[in-house]
From TrEMBL:
Membrane-spanning parts: 37-58, 78-96, 116-134, 140-161, 317-337
Molecular function per GO: phosphotransferase activity, for other substituted phosphate groups
Keyword Membrane assigned: yes
Originating species: Actinoplanes derwentensis
Keyword terms: Membrane, Transferase, Transmembrane, Transmembrane helix
An annotated GO cellular component: membrane
Protein known as: Undecaprenyl-phosphate galactose phosphotransferase, WbaP/exopolysaccharide biosynthesis polyprenyl glycosylphosphotransferase
Membrane-topology descriptor: Multi-pass membrane protein
InterPro entries assigned to the protein according to its UniProt record, in alphabetical order: Bact_transf, EPS_sugar_tfrase
Location of the Bacterial sugar transferase domain: 311-498
Length: 503
């Protein structure tokens, strides 16, 4: 539903904060989804640590053939106290102090998982230090087993809990934040597009409050109701929101943002600021306060150095090992192609790579030999709005080729390009050399080697518009990291299994 609704009211005098004293009770936050969610995580973590202790003790008993589990705890009572009471409580305390239950990190991003891993390192260090201080004969193998099993089980439990949360957010709206966007209409609509792009993020804009009046916005259709001249806090109560997002230039007005923060004190409403920095990942942004002015410092993308060298070495090693491992599969696919349509097994096409250098991409042929000649007669049926020609039911693709495309098996020969250093396992998709001049923003994709998979492939593939595909590729270039590559490779497995956007 689209809205064209505007309201104007006199604003009351601004607040300079709520009166409070040392014994005053803080108002509860309006968004409280994280409380039951955190309780579930605590239960999962406790079960995980108890399970890890049980696994380690069972393995130790089996190995030693004795009625002992840790090698330094004499007597079953002391063992059960340490393994099933002291250690689980210690884990929970360290997980809590490490911020793994902080609502800012729950439900999205990798920071929650990073903190769990750091906690496991702290547990190992604490146990080792305790053993050294008490001169205890510590079974290092058992401690390693407990720590490894615990962190794996905890991470699996949190992945499962997060998936359930994402399903609830997508289908029911539970576990989400209802937001009022404050700013000019273009800025608010830009933030609206960004936060609604991923329903799993749990951010639902329910209203827009204009800071520059509504005269210029009259007659413009908007996805949510638009208001102007209203008291923001009363508007939040009226629309049932729990978060105010200050967009773009509205956050730059001297003193206004600070007074808004004062006004929200004690109300339980969250305040977030959405600056005009789009598609820049968190690790590249740092806040540096100078004399009370919080400056956002944006680091340059890291496209060289040790991490980039490791990426190149991992690509070559994985490609060599992968080609050796799947060579029987490649042979079977080659035979299937020859039986389906006489002609070459591989399709070679010139693509643009790193720094604009061209190369021949390797793919299994999935179309009839006269596909290029027939393309001219199908141009008007092109379903893509960008450089590539795409049709969901392309008559040039033979039956076996359609199966290869649906399962992405036609992309496997590109491991040859990776081995030669022309491509990477993860990167922007390689585009044909004759389909564009790569001017403007698109040319920035050439700062890195193209990849077999990438952010575009795991976000919708052919179902995405050209502008969205370019945006995702540029986001990858600007925010690349080894961790991000591993995350994309992991997501690729599920995308291939779902066959989403593959045609």
């Amino acid at each position: 539903m689209r809205y064209d609704s505007f309201e104007w009211q006199e604003q009351p005098p601004p607040s300079n904060g709520v009166p409070r004293n040392a014994w005053g009770r803080q108002s509860r936050r309006k968004s409280r989804w994280h409380r039951p969610y955190t309780l579930v995580l605590v239960v999962f973590d406790l079960i995980s640590v108890l399970g890890a202790s049980y696994i380690a003790s069972s393995l130790e008993k089996s190995r030693a053939g004795l009625n002992r589990s840790w090698g330094f705890l004499e007597g079953p009572d002391l063992f059960f106290f340490f393994a099933y009471i002291a250690l689980p409580l210690g884990w929970l305390i360290l997980l809590w102090t490490s911020g793994t239950y902080d609502r800012r990190y729950l439900g999205l991003g990798s920071e929650e998982y990073k903190r769990v891993i750091r906690t496991s390192v702290t547990v190992v260090a604490a146990v080792s230090l305790l053993a050294f201080a008490t001169k205890t004969d510590l079974s290092r193998g058992t401690v390693a087993t407990v720590s490894l099993c615990a962190v794996i089980l905890i991470l699996l439990g949190r992945v499962f809990a997060r998936q359930v949360l994402h399903l609830a957010r997508r289908h029911t709206g539970h576990g989400a934040h209802r937001m009022v966007l404050v700013g000019t209409l273009p800025e608010a609509l830009e933030v609206y597009t960004a936060v609604t792009r991923s329903p799993a993020a749990g951010l639902i804009p329910v209203a827009i409050h204009l800071t520059d009046g509504f005269a210029a916005a009259r007659g413009i259709e908007t996805p949510v109701p638009v208001y102007a001249g209203r008291d923001v806090l009363s508007l939040v109560r009226e629309v049932g929101a729990d978060t105010i997002a200050v967009c773009g230039s509205a956050s730059a007005e001297p003193g206004e943002l600070r007074r808004l923060a004062w006004q929200l004190e004690g109300t339980g409403v969250d305040l977030v600021v959405a600056p005009q920095l789009t598609d820049i990942a968190g690790p590249r942004v740092h806040i540096r306060p100078i004399e009370g002015l919080p400056l956002l410092h944006v680091e340059e993308p890291t496209l060289s150095g040790p991490g980039w060298l490791i990426k190149n070495l991992m690509d070559r090693a994985a490609a060599a090992f992968g080609l050796l491992l799947i060579s029987p599969i490649l042979a079977v696919i080659a035979l299937g192609i020859r039986l389906s349509d006489p002609g070459p097994v591989f399709f070679r096409q010139t693509r643009v790579g790193h720094d604009g250098r061209t190369f021949k991409v390797w793919k299994f042929r999935t179309m009839y030999q006269d596909a290029e000649e027939r393309k001219a007669t199908l141009e008007e049926l092109n379903e893509s709005d960008g450089m590539l020609f795409k049709m969901k039911h392309d008559p040039r693709i033979f039956a076996f080729g359609q199966k290869l495309r649906a399962t992405s098996l036609d992309e496997l020969p590109q491991l040859i390009n990776v081995l030669k250093g022309e491509m990477s396992l993860v990167g922007p998709r390689p585009l044909p050399a004759d389909d564009g001049d790569y001017l403007g923003d698109v040319r920035r994709r050439l700062l890195v080697r193209p990849g077999i998979t990438g952010l575009w492939q795991v976000s919708g593939r052919s179902d995405l518009s050209w502008d969205e595909a370019v945006r995702l590729d540029l986001y990858y270039v600007d925010n690349w990291s080894l961790t991000y590559d591993l995350s994309i490779l992991w997501r690729t497995i599920f995308v291939v299994l779902k066959r989403k956007g593959a045609y």
